[in-house]
Amino acid sequence: MDVEPLELPENSLQAFQEYLELRYSPSTVEQYLWAFKSNSPLLRDQKAVDRWLRKKVYSRTNNPFYTGFLKAYIDCFSLPLVVTPSRRKGRVYKAEPKKFLTKAQVDHIIANTSPYVSLMVTLFFETGLRLRELIDARYDDINPQERTISGTGKGGKPFKVKYSTETSKKVLKWLDSHLYNRPFHIDQADVDHGDRFYYYLKKTCQELGLEGVTPHRFRHALGYHLVNDLKFSLPEAQAKLRHTRVETTGIYAQTTQERVDQKIDAEVFKE
Q1: Domain 103-258, second-level architecture
Q2: Helix 64-77 and helix 46-53: axis angle, to 10°?
């Protein structure tokens, strides 16, 4: 027998936002709202939830982000749904080392995309800004004379980051033709401009033969470039990327450790 799908209140998005804001950090609120907009139509009965869990969570090494979102979604609306555990008990997932975009790959994307995508990728890589920090920057947050972008980032912390003199010329040209409050929105349409940019970026990079490119990967690419290519110390890279803990920045030292191990084998152990 078919189960009647659950109905949410008309103001469900606002209600979910208010629920989250009382319980989570601003960055988690933003991420869970994104997940709600993308997934709530798929989560209206237990069978659909179980299918979603298999696809989003259990086939992706038990991604905790989606289970956290689902629990908040269920609790907020007091839904008669449960987070069914995976049947693959005892399975241990070994995290694969992160693969970072190289500077050469970033340069290739910048040189072979539209002016909009090229500018945004350049700014992501030079500043280390997160998607919303850059895409939603206000006109008054951008100081072409100082070559800085200011705002409020993760955890409600203020930031001020610099970009290069060469990029400043492109920024000035862009600002001259986008004289509205949030100039890194490609236009003033009432849409999610973060999702829109991600669509353009993904499509462009696929045409260049690069799969799985997201805006956040340029932040990772910057961290990798600083630590591995430019030999920044971890505390220096931490300061640039505005990480709270230096252990977070340590992921960019993975490849360095692999290189050290190879060098030990070759030069010390003579293997």
Answers
A1: Orthogonal Bundle (1.10)
A2: 160
CA 124 – CA 130 distance, rounded (Å): 7
209 within 8 A of 112, measured Cβ to Cβ: no
**How confident is the prediction along the chain (271 residues), in pLDDT tens digits per residue?**
445 667 888 889 999 999 888 888 788 889 899 999 988 888 888 998 888 888 887 765 566 788 889 989 998 888 888 888 776 554 544 445 568 999 999 999 999 999 999 999 999 999 999 999 999 999 999 999 999 999 998 888 999 999 999 999 999 999 999 999 999 998 898 888 999 999 999 989 999 999 989 999 999 999 999 999 999 999 999 999 999 888 888 888 876 666 677 777 777 777 7
Residue in 194, 184, 187, 200 with CA at minimum distance from that of residue 113: 200
Q: Of 49, 230, 198, give the one whose Cα is nearest residue 126.
A: 230
Give the phi and the psi of residue 148 in degrees, each rounded to 5: -130, 155
